[in-house]
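Readers outside the structure-tokenisation community will struggle with the description of the input data as it stands. For illustration, here is how one protein appears when written out as sequence plus structure tokens:
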Amino acid sequence: MARESGVSVSDLRNWEARYGIPSPKRSQSGRRLYSSSDKETVLRVLALRDAGLSLTGAINQALKAGTLGGGGDSGDVSLFATLRRNNPDLSVHVLDKRTLLALTRAIEDCCFAAAQQPILLGAFQDYRFYRSSQSRWRDMARSSLCAITFAASPGPTSQSTSDETGEPIVNISISAGSPLSREWALVCDGVERPACVVGWERPGQEGRPDQTRVFETIWSVDPSVVRQASRVAWSIAARHQPDVRGLDDILAERTVPAARMDALHVSELLGRTLEYLAAAA
């Protein structure tokens, strides 16, 4: 369990003694026997801690959820924590919102310049931030295979909305308690120029000017990392709106290109980011 979860043996024993989590069965010789549910619960605690909760708070929510796939928003996972845990070589950069927005816009531009019909997924924290980008997302949805957004209430309940061209944008409403409510994300999963960026807002920034809020950020153009982000976001969407489950076949049908670091792609991405920053200055 320690090897698979990343939690030390001593911590696992301390959690069990103090909080009753995990709760393994015992063999006749007294050896701990962990189930898949125990492992899911431990991973859930790690995801909630990465989302900013204290250990006690994370364990309480994990116990309430029961398992990683439990019902309601308590079953959501942190996209940032999942990608970081699965890809420890990815660098983490602390960016303010202005810089993160410029990088996000650059990824969108590069992705759609390739005319590749990507799978497009975005996390906006609060619904008002989605509203400010809604017209841009409607434009991108016209050239997307599908487009899914996540935003915390206030906002619509989980639903599919169509713009005037009939291209769907699936809007998923999450609660303020979901790990995604602290995250900024864009995933452009396309055949060419795939890219993703995920930011986790640091706690304790209440009252800070919006544009100066800071996020711990990871980004990648590695197709395998982008596909991981797609699958995690897709699973969250499917829990909230079962209608999107059938679209999972799209991911299965699209092969993941060999991992690569496309120098021209990265160069264009960084160039566009700088242009957005200069325009906002």
